[in-house]
Design brief:
The chain is mainly alpha-helical and about 70 residues long. Helices cover about 75% and strands about 0% of the residues.
């Protein structure tokens, strides 16, 4: 039986899995902060809620996005 996944598909799945392992816990802490700790600074949640998607998008764009376009 032939392998359905190309090397590019495997690389994409690996990158998505690693991203999930990093971003998942960060978003869990942001969204469940008050259950984990009694102190709940609202500004902290707002800043991280915007910063996390920005960093994820940037990290997905930088490594392979500019290669070959120079």
């Amino acid at each position: 039986m032939q392998n359905i996944l190309t090397p590019h598909h495997r690389w994409c799945l690996h990158r998505a899995f690693v991203t999930m392992l990093i971003v998942g816990p960060v978003l869990t802490v942001i969204n469940q902060w008050e259950l984990l700790w009694s102190f709940d600074p609202v500004w902290w949640k707002v800043v991280l809620t915007f910063a996390v998607p920005f960093v994820v998008s940037l990290s997905g764009s930088l490594p392979g996005g500019a290669k070959g376009k120079r």
